[in-house]
Here is the input.
Amino acid sequence: DAMVIQNPRYQVTQFGKPVTLSCSQTLNHNVMYWYQQKSSQAPKLLFHYYDKDFNNEADTPDNFQSRRPNTSFCFLDIRSPGLGDAAMYLCATSRGGLAVQETQYFGPGTRLLVL
Amino acid sequence: AQSVTQPDIHITVSEGASLELRCNYSYGATPYLFWYVQSPGQGLQLLLKYFSGDTLVQGIKGFEAEFKRSQSSFNLRKPSVHWSDAAEYFCAVGEGRSARQLTFGSGTQLTVLP
Here is the structure.
């Protein structure tokens, strides 16, 4: 089945140790998004890629970076994780292109724990 | 700036009872509205969406929602709740022509009693 895949589902890292989260999609969608969702809160958009064009939200900390080497894959890099970065990280995709109103499809998420 | 309010943090219903989850939005232009459901430890699953046309929208799993412009609301309903519906429900509004930037409400946690 076409889907959005996130690996790993659970990630443990140490305070200040760089970590990378992975997202892949078989939907061939042009747009990929990264959201941060802290416990009992709504998802918050960090940034998104339209093809290779990177779009950062104004309030996303510099500690968060992203890479999209090809259509299928997108990575979230946290350069120096702090305790406050412990959260669920959700990847989503949408078709983009000529679509006027888009629907986002979410992966299962990666839960990050910072020790 | 757009915003979404889900007034009920937590709702408890008995299995078989009807359900209505409230959502109010604030957005200057035509809103693009979504309901997503999230089971514990899982990602978000799209239940239904409203872009235009018929204001009563049917979704998956027997859910429906009604867009009421005069009340700035997009409430989610289900006539008979199943135990498997227990989850967190998020209403969202999409900004701009493409609805690409989603603003989510704070969510409503649904508990279903046997």
Summary: The two ends of chain A are 36 Å apart (CA to CA). Chain A touches chain B through 26 residues (CB under 8 Å). The domain at 4-114 of chain A is CATH 2.60.40.10 (Immunoglobulin-like). The mean pLDDT of chain A is 92.
